[in-house]
Amino acid sequence: MLIRAHGWTHDLKSGVQLMEVARRESVPGAFILARAQLAFLSLKIQAALLNGTQPPELTLKRLVSVTHPLDWSEQERLFGF
Known about the structure:
By secondary structure, the protein is an all-alpha fold. The protein has helices spanning 2-13, 18-25, 29-36, 43-51, 60-64, 72-78. The radius of gyration is 13 Å and the shape is elongated. The relative contact order is 0.16.
């Protein structure tokens, strides 16, 4: 999902409309928005997710159910790093 979030974020930054991305992915726009924030996680969290070394309680459900702080230190504290 992290890789997809980066792709969606790239599309949105490039001017592709949210509804176009959502239609292409066959999901609601809210689904894209909730998961696109994964692209803005701290590099430490992203590396752990890609390596499978994140805390066991750090699930996709937990990641998309909260609005992430912009500050990476705060993200890391919030998600148990």
